[in-house]
């Protein structure tokens, strides 16, 4: 029996039901944060100190990454450019709305209301990035209805994990290497494991890039590259912490870019560069430096992390991804395990090393700000002393470096476990009928889901390798 | 008699005459505003409090929208991509220069000089957006010479309307729903009404999108989407007002995006998505929330406005645009009446409701800042009392909510009327000979106005539906 | 003997050796600047006054210009889009790393260490822009290995020149017209002079644009256009100086855009626009206004400079570039001599005029801030008096306007001379074998350096003029 891929009923159903629920939840439980509430302004309020002006520049940068960077990057398939960009748009808009609510209940809730400000939107964009990374594992093999259902499930699992890790484990992870990248990666792998399609392992006639699709995709890479320092530093402390986060991210991206070009030429048979490497592996440094991005790791260490992450990522693309597809039922379409998984693991290790080596000698009293949980507890006389050096220093938990490192390890394994299990369960849900999943031969194809212009068939024809199997009317 | 479409004489004539006039006017009447004038700096000036730093971030965001967002969005026609992007570039540069002068005389004039700062440029970009929206109605059917003449006429009509509305009617319209969107829409419809081309109602062989053109256009949409919060909030009060404007715009865009995808699938025969919907209807929320964007309407209301505007916009595209073209001589090429007109009207209504419901209870004393004209007059003792709560509160007109609402209604109808009449007169001027207007068969075609590369003919051939009527040499 | 164009050995060799050296130098000599160093923060540090927040917005704008603006602009060749964008990416990442080190030793060195902050990155991006402009002269005719070698040589020559000019000649050149544009231009011309390929003067079958490549390239132009005010103002004094720099750049770009459209139509045989003009000549105003961008030249002068630079640039493209190629062995692929050389010279002259006309009447005491070297020497009693008017005014050299003008002239000729000689020597180095230089017939072709998708051959076929010489299998 041929399943329908028509979105006519399913997509509106999922969207309108969600919208009614979202609207009801917004009406009942979302109000303005103090900085956005007219009634909270008085004669002591100075408009230009509104938190808006600290958060909004980073928010717009991350917006460009989410909607344009990811969108273009995912448009690399010649016949699935609409799908890559438009489903990214749909999923991102949906994920952010949903994350505002779910994260709101966990992180921005007081007096029975979610307090909304630009910081909530920024936080929701991180949740959105998680979903979009996972999307990379199943690109071209899932319907937009399935993607919305995946978003509905992934956002709460992520938000709970995030809340537990931040509230109870209290880790250092400014760039989101553990929470964003590792979670997203293993969740996506879980989903694609369940949605395994054996026939795709033999290659698919439409799974091909095109000359212009590759250029669109590289533009996406460049937007991600340019604004990645803003992503990695958006959640750090203001001041020197944020300054370092920007420096380290930039340096690591630079060194991973150089390395990616070199390895791409070196590992190809004919000494030519592969665009997929330039589109993806160049970004490895941004992830690898994430967990230690605000620490005093030194610029040279950031440089080294960029190189190391890039090597791991490149070897992953060359050897691990094909292996996982053939032997482990894990078909990782965009290779998220290389760009987010392997690099995320290296980043965690580097973060742990940086935590173990952090000392008052290097950081001065700021040590207890960057590593907030190592700050002395409130009763500790050292806390008072430190407060004279850093006014406004919050009391901490008095953790030692070793204790903090152990919590990082716990967070890493916990996150991976929850993500993988969550991904597998989500994959099972996505196998439900009526979600307009494409059959194998309709994968990587915009035609099932879009009204395509007349030049589409011609483009499809161009691609057909020796004795076209696609009908085209040129 | 075949009219020439050559730009060889006409375009340089219009440009050079304008440039001489502009240069003379700049020389005679434009000088620096205080914040840009070296001689006005003294030992009390703090460089970082220069107004530049408040305005410039919003200015660059709007620049991206105008030049890249609009430019790419208008490149959706397969054979008119150069025209869409390059004429947008030309018109935008021209409109801003002209608007700096015209708005300067009305809004930034003192001691016989226009005082120039980044705020003037930002203001001129709003006038520019007006022209570009109107351009959407006649895209592909007008020569660049006609577009420059249209700009020459539209900018002053707009600037006068803006000045009357802001100075005499004194309305609330932070996002420009009335002044920008309604004006631009009805002006454009007036122009296209006069330039009616009956033969185009039967379809035009070149009026087709292309696979890559649609991707370029969607990139334009995404740039508009990402920076729309900056557009809607650029002219609000700093602080909580701007904060709310950003939140509301983002929420409304998100909900209209979701709705647009759902409706696009629902209203298509085969349950497939239409790229034109994703490129345009997703943006409806940004306009719809405009007139009330800085008010305490609640996040849920912003959500609802996004959905409502999107529904109106989508139904407009499906049913109203074809109706207007067939029965009212209004050929609205990009459907600006849907994206800017219908949504603008809803926005006005929502703004009026928000004004009527605004109370001191919700806003606190800030009520008289957001609704500046409801502030008590200078002599009123209440003014003094309020100034203690909000230092620097300007005296207002002591309007009641109902009075303010009536002024909004007057502004709405007045703007629509002036715009439509201005558009019709402009249309008549554009019918003058010697403006290089394209004949019907040269519409939607880059070839009359650009030296095209050799692959153009091939692309043109691809498009020809069964039995090509275009000459191509493949 | 056919030389190999394989990158398999050469590219990794150059990259890995450089990376090892860079990493060693970073480890040995790069540390954090005060604003990025946790140990330098104390109870008097206010996080939001960190220099990060002054520099980062301009840094991201310039990043977009470098990686996306230049990248897309250079993708205008139909069969060399990958090369344009990806080599731009590679060279930019490499140049910035290298410039951080080299400029660091000259400009940011204290106590035996380079002090790293975002300002260093911004400064390195200017060095990077220099390399990318020079790249324009040899686009499509050099291998990525050659480009890296060129970068290795150009960055130190530039950094030394910059240091000498800024430290000893002490000139005014906020927009980098002398240091960035003239240096880059004459260096690039020097390189291409040595790499002269006589056969290319007869045209090359692959040296053709494509319809979509031209659109990508125009997008690049628009990104450069939009953020050019940030580039020209990134290095000025904060406050009114930066405000003026932004205004002037915007005005000059606007007027040069209008002029470029008019001239493009006027100078073409058939009255049609040429995309190459719209992509390049529109930007002339940004360069032309550079040397006087922060001075009180008046908005009208900025307007006039935009027009003048545009005319020179356009005439250069039409008449000078072909002349140089035929008669002077200078094959300037992207016409950098027009967009950066001629305009740079006009800019210098304008800067000198502005310096000669600058008076205390126009500038007030700020005169001695904008023209820092005209400030009185420390012992001069006038210095004390001025410090009361402008607290924090640095003592200067007591130069007169004429003296300053002479230094500008010296800097201009000195820079041109050093750049040209440096470029010629670099060109000789690039002729070394084993740098994977493409043969004449492999110029302007992505195939030697990239694994291209299957539609590439088809695109190549489309282009072949009457009796294709390229093998294609359509």
Automatic annotation (TrEMBL), chains A, B, C:
InterPro entries the UniProt entry points to: Ammonium/urea_transptr, NH4_transpt_AmtB-like_dom, RhesusRHD
Biological process (GO), any one: ammonium homeostasis
Cellular localization per UniProt: Cell membrane
Main location (coarse class): membrane
Record membrane topology: Multi-pass membrane protein
Domain Ammonium transporter AmtB-like: 21-433
The entry's keywords: Ammonia transport, Cell membrane, Glycoprotein, Membrane, Transmembrane, Transmembrane helix, Transport
Keyword set includes Thylakoid: no
Transmembrane segments: 58-80, 86-106, 118-139, 145-166, 178-196, 216-234, 246-267, 300-320, 341-359, 405-430
GO MF annotation, one: ammonium channel activity
Function: Functions as an ammonia transporter. May play a role in the elimination of ammonia in the gill.
UniProt record similarity statement: Belongs to the ammonium transporter (TC 2.A.49) family. Rh subfamily.
Protein name as it appears in the record: Ammonium transporter Rh type B-A-like
């Amino acid at each position: 029996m041929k399943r329908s891929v028509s979105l006519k009923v399913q997509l509106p159903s999922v969207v309108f039901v969600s919208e009614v629920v979202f609207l009801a939840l917004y009406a009942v439980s979302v109000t303005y944060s103090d900085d956005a509430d007219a009634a909270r302004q008085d004669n002591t309020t100075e408009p230009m100190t509104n938190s808006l002006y600290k958060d909004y520049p980073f928010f717009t940068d991350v917006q460009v990454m989410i909607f344009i960077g990811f969108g273009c990057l995912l448009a690399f398939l010649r016949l699935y450019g609409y799908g890559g960009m438009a489903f990214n748009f749909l999923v991102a808009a949906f994920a952010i709305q949903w994350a505002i609510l779910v994260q709101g209940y966990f992180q921005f809730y007081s007096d029975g209301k979610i307090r909304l400000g630009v910081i909530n939107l920024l936080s929701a964009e991180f949740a959105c990035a998680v979903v979009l990374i996972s999307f990379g594992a199943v690109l071209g093999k899932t319907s937009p209805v399935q993607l919305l259902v995946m978003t509905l499930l992934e956002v709460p699992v992520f938000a709970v994990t995030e809340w537990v890790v931040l509230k109870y484990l209290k880790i250092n992870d400014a760039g989101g290497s553990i929470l964003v990248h590792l979670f997203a990666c293993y969740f996506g792998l879980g989903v694609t494991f369940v949605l395994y399609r054996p026939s795709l392992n033999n290659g698919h006639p439409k799974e091909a890039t095109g000359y212009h699709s590759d250029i669109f995709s590289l533009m996406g890479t460049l937007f991600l590259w340019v604004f990645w320092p803003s992503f990695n530093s958006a959640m750090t402390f203001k001041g020197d912490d944020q300054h370092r986060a920007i420096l380290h991210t930039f340096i690591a991206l630079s060194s991973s870019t150089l390395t990616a070009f070199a390895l791409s030429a070196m590992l190809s048979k004919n000494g030519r560069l592969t665009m997929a490497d330039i589109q993806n592996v160049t970004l490895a440094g941004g992830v690898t430096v994430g967990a230690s991005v605000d620490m005093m790791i030194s610029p040279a260490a950031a440089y080294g992390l960029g190189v190391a992450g890039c090597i791991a990522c490149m070897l992953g693309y060359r050897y691990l991804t094909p292996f996982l597809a053939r032997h482990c039922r894990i078909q990782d379409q965009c290779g998220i395990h290389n760009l987010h998984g392997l690099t995320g693991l290296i980043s965690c290790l580097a973060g742990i090393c940086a935590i173990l080596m952090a000392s008052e000698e290097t950081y001065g009293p700021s040590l207890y700000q960057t590593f907030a949980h190592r700050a002395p507890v409130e009763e500790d006389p050292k806390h008072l002393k430190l407060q004279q050096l850093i006014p406004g220093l919050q009391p901490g938990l008095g953790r030692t470096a070793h204790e903090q490192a152990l919590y990082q390890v716990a967070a890493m394994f916990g996150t991976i476990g929850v993500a993988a299990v969550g991904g597998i369960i989500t994959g099972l849900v996505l196998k439900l009928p009526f979600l307009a999943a494409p059959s194998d031969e309709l994968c990587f194809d915009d035609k099932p889901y879009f009204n395509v212009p007349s030049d589409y068939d011609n483009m499809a024809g161009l691609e057909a390798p020796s004795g076209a199997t696609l009908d085209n009317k040129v």
